[in-house]
Design a protein that fits this description.
heterodimer, A: 157 residues, alpha+beta, 4 strands, B: 25 helices, 19 strands, binds flavin mononucleotide, binds iron/sulfur cluster, binds FE2/S2 (inorganic) cluster
Chain lengths: 157, 618
């Protein structure tokens, strides 16, 4: 995917919601992630300027925290819960079905940039295991043979 | 009204709320926890609003409709509870709403088809408190969940909230600590360290600044009680923290919440705001002269950040790597100041302990583990969800009486407790009382209280491999035993599940376990051996079946199983053939089908779609 150049104001709008201290770094990065589906380089540079923290330190956070991604993600995110309860109730089969149908490996993005497939550890809805989240909407008791229907129904394609 | 400036004013306010409340009027409680919302609670709540409006039933006057936190029985959601009749309806759909209003709200009658039915006897149970899932519970940490609206501080106050705080403000800080010590409350986040002892050693350190932290990272897969408390009763956590801060002389607190819990973050944020407005948080709390405030810190989805030293770094806006434990965080924690970190459930217990007294709390539970514990009962069990019971309940009582036994009448094999730091306990030890010490003795751990029930279809080698794989991904890689030892352990376990393991694999695994236990830097590495050692200890035969006979007795490990169709059971409906991604199932309509084993990728789709249970694994 091509990098889109963004107006600094877009980052500032997010940064301005927080106190300009190191304590806010993670929250701001998470908001970047939510807004742009990844943490753009310009955003890191801007953040480094405004808060006065070396960019290298922000990059270190970007690679350490699972919630953050430094590379662009797909328009839709599918998260398969692979927590224990979900594992026992068939999460591996769900994941394989998605890998097969979308022709993408876990943590990868489909060629058309439509979907990113992720694994997450327990989303705290274990009673509905196995759980799959499509753009953060919970789907419980999912089955390998039905999972693509669930995805298609939600994103409307 | 604005800020409440004294304890007397708070009590007067509570009386005002009580006078305005009319508990005799019908109330509809729609569960708005994550689970029920996922199952469609919102349209159900909206349907109630519509019907109520249509029929001119004044919401505040005749019928109160409330959205609450999770009742713990999410699998059966959306849940709707009705008062004053104390009726619980399961799996409610918007279409059911007019009937519920007509029959139950107006007529006081039960809609039979929506009530709980005992899976074994078929008997219908309409009363909330008589459903087996709830009957055996004793709720302290979950005391308000499901009955109050987490968005309403008035609801919390009316239910007796902040009375623990007012009592605490009249006490000497030292006496509060003594009370918590005497209650025997042990930390609910995993290790079970006595809360009072931790507080006592923190105040003993000379410092002008102190911090109070709440651990809401909830990294254990399979556990969701902290989520439920933060979402369903945020004020109980906040009240507990204010009491702790007052006892410790702290003026700033932080709640560290996983970013994957948006509803918890939203409800906590709103609750903090409401508490500040009411003068319960911030400057000069209730006119006592004591000031304390709380910030929310959103975690970044790394399991290791639940570890205390890593969490403190993460709060400060750094990479959340643990540090060596020779300096304790009660001495030098957040920003190198004395810090008390407790778990969500631990904090939620504090107001109740202060209010009702240490003796009351200590009278519940066992000798070494006082009070109640919230368990998340999940896996292969009939009733899954959150349950709060006195410590000391046996595994069997939990699984059979509350959980309603094993799903699909299968054989009960084991429970896994304590998440990745815990282990598996076999069925033959199921009469073991659940408390901190007995679980540790059995080679497992309490952890955060996840109880994952396993049946005959669970492969214990696969489970050990699963947890090790989880920890490999979550290890921060700072120390060598964990960075290099864990992946090696995973390789060995994977080889066994693939049928390439030899006798020496077990010995090598045990050696690595030893290395991690004494050599790793933080709790992630030092406890990583538990899932492996406990499964080897109790299920050695299963390891041997994989190694010696190249067989997976539970039929899980892909390399060791084959799919085939039982010609007796197959009806020739062709459903499997239509769904098989490999197109390797053949057969004529209405005749038994067969699988071409060479092409089969063992995806399990055929077994999933077959409604006649004709697809078998061997
Ligand atoms: C790797 C690791 C992960 C942990 N994750 C959590 C967690 O998610 N939540 C939690 O409350 N405690 C967690 N703990 C335990 C905490 O470090 C700490 O002991 C606890 O929060 C203290 O609170 P308590 O005394 O009230 O239990 C974890 C520990 C380790 C070693
Ligand atoms: S034991 Fe593992 S997680 Fe803990 S500090 Fe060492 S490498 Fe990091
Ligand atoms: S779905 Fe089941 S019953 Fe139908 S053809 Fe396949 S194996 Fe036979
Ligand atoms: S397991 Fe998958 S590939 Fe094999 S026969 Fe069944 S559906 Fe086809
Ligand atoms: S294990 Fe999947 S939601 Fe908890
Ligand atoms: S979310 Fe409703 S019972 Fe858990």
């Amino acid at each position: 995917m091509t990098e889109v150049t963004r107006d600094l104001a877009q980052f500032d709008r997010i940064i301005d919601r927080y106190e300009k201290t190191e304590e806010s770094l993670l929250a701001i990065l998470q908001d970047f992630q939510r807004e742009f589906h990844y943490v753009p380089e310009e955003g890191i540079r801007r953040l480094s300027e405004v808060i006065g923290v070396p960019a290298s330190k922000i990059y270190a956070m970007g690679t350490f925290y699972k919630a953050l991604s430094l590379t662009p993600r797909g328009r839709h995110t599918i998260k398969v819960c692979t927590g224990t309860a979900c594992h026992l109730k068939g999460a591996p089969q769900i994941l394989e079905a998605l890998e097969r149908e979308l022709k993408v490996k876990r943590n990868g993005t489909t060629e058309d940039g439509e979907f990113t497939l992720e694994c997450v550890n327990c989303v705290g809805a274990c009673a509905m295991a196995p759980v799959t989240l499509v753009d953060d909407v919970y789907h419980g008791q999912t089955r390998p043979s039905k999972i693509m229907d669930v995805v298609k129904k939600q994103v409307g394609s | 009204m604005g800020a409440i400036k004294s304890v007397e004013q708070l009590e007067a306010y509570r009386r005002e709320l009580a006078a305005a409340a009319r508990p005799e009027l019908p109330t509809v409680l729609v569960c708005f926890g994550t689970g029920c919302q996922a199952n469609g609670a919102r349209p159900v709540a909206e349907a109630f609003m519509d019907v109520i409006k249509e029929q001119g039933l004044e919401i505040d006057v005749n019928v109160g409709i409330k959205t609450t936190g999770c009742h713990g029985y999410c699998e059966n959601g959306p849940l709707v509870a009705l008062r004053p009749q104390d009726i619980l309806y399961l799996k409610v759909k918007p279409e059911d709403v007019p009937e519920i209003v007509e029959e139950t709200v107006k007529g006081g009658r039960v809609v039979e088809r929506l009530v709980y039915r005992d899976k074994a006897t078929g008997e219908a149970v309409a009363r909330y408190s008589e459903i087996p899932f709830y009957r055996h519970q004793q709720r302290i940490a979950l005391r308000h969940i499901g009955t109050i609206d987490p968005a309403s501080i008035d609801d919390y106050i009316l239910a007796g909230g902040y009375a623990g705080l007012t009592k605490a403000l009249a006490m000497k800080p030292d006496d509060i600590i003594s009370e918590v010590e005497r209650s025997g409350l042990r930390g609910r986040g995993g290790g079970g360290f006595p809360a009072g002892t931790k507080w006592r050693s923190c105040v003993a350190v000379e410092s002008d600044v102190r911090y109070v932290l709440c651990n809401g990272d909830e990294g254990d897969p399979g556990a969701f009680m902290d989520r439920s408390i933060m979402e369903g009763d945020p004020h109980s956590v906040i009240e507990g923290m204010i009491i702790g801060a007052y006892a410790l002389g702290s003026h700033q607190g932080y709640i560290y919440v996983r970013d994957e819990y948006p509803l918890a973050i939203r409800n906590l944020t709103a609750a903090l705001e409401a508490a500040r407005e009411k003068g319960l948080l911030g400057e000069d709390i209730l006119g006592s002269g004591f000031s304390f405030d709380i910030k929310i810190s959103r975690g970044g989805g790394a399991f290791v950040c639940g570890e205390s030293s890593a969490l403190m770094r993460s709060v400060a806006g750094e990479v959340g790597e643990p540090r060596a434990k020779y300096i304790r965080s009660v001495e030098r924690g957040l920003y190198d100041k004395p810090t008390v970190l407790n778990n969500v459930e631990t904090w939620a217990n504090v107001p109740e302990i202060i209010l009702k007294g240490a003796d009351w709390y200590a009278s519940i539970g066992t000798e070494g583990s006082k009070g109640t514990k919230v368990f998340s009962l999940v896996g292969k069990v009939n009733n899954t969800g959150l349950v709060e019971v006195p410590m000391g309940i046996s595994i069997r009582e939990l699984v059979e009486n509350i959980g309603g036994g094993i799903l699909g009448g299968k054989e009960f094999k084991a429970v896994q407790t304590g998440g990745p730091s815990g282990g598996c306990i076999p069925e033959r030890l199921a009469d073991l009382p659940i408390d901190f010490d007995s679980l540790t003795e059995a080679g497992s751990m309490m952890g955060s209280g996840g109880i994952i029930v396993m049946d005959e279809d669970t492969c214990m080698v696969d489970v050990a491999r699963y947890f090790t794989g989880f920890l490999v991904e979550e290890s921060c890689g700072k120390c060598t035993p964990c960075r290099d030892g864990l992946p090696r352990m995973l390789d060995l376990l994977t080889e066994i599940t693939e049928g390439c393991g030899g006798e020496e694999h077990l010995a090598m695994l045990e050696g690595l376990c030893d290395l991690l236990t004494w050599g790793a830097l933080c709790g992630l590495g030092t406890s990583a051996a538990n899932p492996v050692l406990s499964t080897i200890k109790y299920f050695r035969d299963e390891y041997e079946a994989h190694i010696r006979d190249k067989r997976c007795p539970a039929g899980v490990c892909k390399a060791l199983i084959t799919y085939h169709i039982d010609p007796e059971a197959c009806t020739g409906c062709r459903l499997c053939a239509k769904n098989c991604p490999q197109e390797c199932i053949t057969g004529k309509r209405k005749e038994p089908h067969t699988i071409d084993a060479d092409k089969c990728i063992k995806c399990g789709v055929c077994k999933d779609v077959c409604t006649f249970d004709a697809v078998r694994i061997s």
